[in-house]
Amino acid sequence: MVKIVKNTWALFTGIGIILLANGLQGNLMGVRSVIENFSSLSTGIIMSGYFVGYFVGSNLTPNMVSRVGHIRVFAAFASTASLSILIIAAYVNPIVWTLGRFLTGLSLVSCYVVAESWLNDRANNRTRGKLLSIYMIINYLALGSGALLLNFDDPTSFKPFILVSILLSIALVPILLTKRPAPKFKKIGTLNLIELYKISPLGTVSSFCTGAIYSALFAMFAVYATKINFSLFEISILLFLTTIAGAFFQAPIGYLSDKYNRRIIIILCNLFSAVFCFSLIFISSEKLFNLNALHMLLDINVFKDFSLITYAGTSKLNFFIIITIYSGIALCVFALNLAHTNDFVPKEKFVAAGGGLQLVFGLGAMGGPLACSIVMDNLGPNGYFVYLLFFHALIALFGIYRMAVRKVAENPDNTFTPLPRNITPAGIELDPDTGVDLSNNKA
After folding, report:
1. What is the CATH number of domain 2-175+189-434?
2. Contact (Cβ atoms closer than 8 angstroms) between residue 131 and residue 216
3. Among 104, 113, 118, 115, which residue's Cα sits nearest to residue 59?
4. Are 70 and 118 in contact (CB under 8 A)?
5. 434 CA to centre of own chain
6. Which of 26, 46, 87, 305 is the most buried (most CB within 10 A)?
7. How far is Cα 155 from Cα 417, in angstroms, rounded to an integer?
């Protein structure tokens, strides 16, 4: 392990600093957008810009790396990400912010692709599982710690934005000064969507819904928390807990998914997530929804009473506990989707299947913040949890349907692998179950 860290410290340091900056930037913009009185719709469009850029970048970056190399691509896009946050700080305008978030998403996914393909080059079949574990820990810790940096200064000041730019610039230093030559880039194919759906309908549908969930969960949570008058410190702690929880829950849930029917675990995770979302609505509500008057559901005016929240009051502790448990469970669903899909494909197609699921995930993520903002606009701030509940319930119901129409035929050689939520197909190759031959690489 010491040798692995010694040979990859520059790479992990650079990508860790980028993730730290990313953890601060998105949440900072969410808080500031509420302070600036941007409409919920405008905020949703701004936050969706990141995921549109992420989707575009994940498809363009492999070609750019093949043409000009890893280091040039990393340097160019880390610099672009640093520039985009300065533009955002200078021009407080929804249109400029949307373009800025698009550039950020495009730039950061390019950095992730470069870093993860570089990790593949430094791994062999004996060490890649350890490298993936280290990468996952750095991923979650850096993103969570970035949220804590919200306390650095007043969000209305330009200083937090400058800090993001500084961090992104610093991230260049260890990567550009590394002694080891950049690897030859290997393009990773994907299964087309029709083929992927035929192989695993649940994996495909769940990945799309998971994209819609994750993008809203992280892009809009700071917006939600600011709207209900949490303090900046409380928001930063909440964001830290909800991010870190994803790392701690993966091992126990992964163990259960390997021991029992994986579809049942996916269904249960989403059912529990839906229940927790429902609980959070009531914990943080001034008014309780009248469950005895179910006929009122047919009257659209009922949603006017479903304005749902202006404070968290004495229930803050319960809110913190439940949102943390919810996030821990929800953040396992992407890796469960991948493991479930891999149960039905041969090992040589694991990475291609992962790439296909990432594509589907990206399609869902692009519209997530926008759709969530529309729901919040109509139902009040707690429409945030109504939105999340809907997609969790959709996955669970579709999973129950799939269990009724196809018996499970799991691949006994496939196991659950904990994965960070923003991993690219290049990083999925580090999963020891993929069957990719890395034996010629040195770590």
Report:
1. 1.20.1250.20
2. no
3. 113
4. yes
5. 22
6. 46
7. 37
